[in-house]
Design a protein that fits this description.
It is a single chain. The chain is mostly beta strands. It is built from two helices and 15 strands. The longest helix has 26 residues. It is globular and about 60 Å long. The termini are far apart.
Length: about 350
C-alpha cells in the first residue's frame, strides 16, 4: 500500500474516532433541540498559501441589525514537505501560527461588516514529536519526517540552484488585515432555516511579505455561503452547508512571476447538534492552485483539506470551537492544523 493510500485510510479512521467521541458525549448529556451549526472558519495554512486572500468557509446567516460578534481565533499548522524535480527543490519544514481578532457587526437588517486583524508567526515549533506519534497512532505515513531534525524551521524553494525564497529564522508580526462584509440573499425564516448569503473580503498588504506574513498585494474575495437545516426530533438537528467563490489577487512580492491572479474555492460539510451545548462538524475544502510554472505539488497543485471537530456553547452567546485539519491531497497543505476559536456575541 502506498503512502497516500495509507494516509487516506488513516484519515477516515481519525474521523470515525471523532464520531464515536461525539456519540459518547451524547450518551452523557440531555437530549435537546441543539445549537446553531456553522462551518469552521479555517483554511489552508501552508506557508505559500496563507499569505493570500482566499475565502475561508463561513456562515450563511448574516448578523441581525445591531448584533455583534467578536472572535479570537488560533490556527497552529505543522508543515513537513521535502520534494525535488528537475531543477526545482522545496523544503517546507516548520510551524506557522495565525492568531486573529475578528470583529463583525450587523449594520442594518441583512447587512454585516467586519474587520479581521491577524498576527502571524513562523518557527521551528514544538509539535514534531506529537505529530509523529499521531500519524503512527492513526496509521498515517510520516513521509520521512522521522529522519529530519525535530523542531527546525526552514521554508525554502530553489530553482537552478538559486533561492526563490528562504525563511530559516523565527519571526512574528502583523499579517494582512481583511475588511469583510456580507449580505443576506435568502432566509426562509423557518424553524429549520434555509439560508443563502453573499460574502466578500478585501485583504490589505499590511504584513511583511519578505517574512511570509503577507503577500504584498491587495486581494479581493467574493463567495456564496448556503445552509439547509433539518430537525431530527429528539435527536437535535442536522445542517448541511456549502461555500463557493473565488479570489482576485494583485501582483504580489512572493514568487511574483509564478503567482496566479485568479483562484477558486469550494467547501461542503455537515454538522449534527444533538444537544443545546454541543455540535459535531465535518467539512471538506478545495481550492485551485495559486502558482504556476512548477512541477512540484507543493507549489503548483490544487489543495483538498478535511476538517472535523466540535463546537461548544458555554452560554447562549459564548461559543468555543476546536477542530483538526488533515491534507487529503498530500503535500499541498500542512500535515496537521489545529483550529481554536472563542466567539462572543453581543
Amino acid at each position: 500500500m502506498n503512502g497516500r493510500s495509507e494516509k487516506r485510510k488513516g484519515t477516515w479512521r481519525a474521523w470515525a474516532g471523532a464520531a464515536m467521541a461525539g456519540l459518547a458525549l451524547l450518551l452523557t448529556g440531555t437530549v435537546a433541540r441543539g445549537m446553531e451549526v456553522r462551518p469552521f472558519r479555517t483554511g489552508n495554512m501552508a506557508p505559500l498559501v496563507q499569505i493570500h486572500g482566499l475565502p475561508v468557509p463561513d456562515n450563511a446567516r448574516i448578523l441581525a441589525s445591531r448584533e455583534g460578534e467578536v472572535s479570537a481565533v488560533a490556527d497552529l499548522a505543522n508543515n513537513y514537505a521535502v520534494d525535488a524535480k528537475g531543477t526545482e527543490r522545496v523544503v517546507l519544514d516548520g510551524e506557522t501560527y495565525r492568531f486573529a481578532l475578528d470583529l463583525r457587526y450587523g449594520l442594518v437588517p441583512g447587512v454585516e461588516a467586519g474587520i479581521e486583524i491577524p498576527f502571524i508567526a513562523h518557527s521551528g515549533g514544538f509539535l514534531d514529536g506529537f505529530i509523529e506519534w499521531f500519524h503512527k497512532a492513526f496509521g498515517f505515513t510520516n513521509g520521512g519526517r522521522e529522519y529530519a531534525p525535530r523542531d527546525r524551521l526552514i521554508y525554502r524553494y530553489e530553482t537552478n540552484g538559486a533561492d526563490r525564497f528562504r525563511i530559516d529564522d523565527s519571526n512574528a508580526g502583523i499579517g494582512d488585515i481583511r475588511l469583510t462584509g456580507g449580505i443576506q440573499l435568502y432566509d426562509d425564516g423557518a424553524a429549520a432555516p434555509r439560508r443563502v448569503a453573499l460574502r466578500g473580503a478585501l485583504k490589505l498588504p499590511t504584513g511583511d511579505s519578505g517574512k511570509l506574513r503577507g503577500s504584498g498585494s491587495v486581494d479581493f474575495a467574493l463567495w456564496l455561503a448556503a445552509s439547509d437545516d433539518y430537525r431530527l426530533g429528539d435527536w437535535g438537528h442536522l445542517t448541511l452547508f456549502a461555500n463557493a467563490g473565488g479570489t482576485v489577487m494583485g501582483d504580489g512580492d512572493v514568487l511574483g512571476d509564478q503567482q496566479r491572479n485568479l483562484a477558486a474555492m469550494g467547501t461542503f460539510g455537515f454538522g449534527w447538534s444533538p444537544l443545546d451545548w454541543m455540535a459535531l462538524t465535518v467539512q471538506t475544502t478545495w481550492h485551485s492552485s495559486l502558482y504556476k510554472g512548477s512541477e512540484l505539488r507543493e507549489i503548483n497543485n490544487d489543495s483538498l483539506l478535511m476538517t472535523g471537530g466540535f463546537s461548544f456553547a458555554f452560554t447562549e452567546r459564548t461559543f468555543f470551537d476546536i477542530a483538526l485539519s488533515e491534507d487529503l491531497n498530500v503535500k499541498t497543505a500542512p500535515d496537521v492544523t489545529f483550529h481554536l476559536a472563542l466567539r462572543q456575541r453581543f
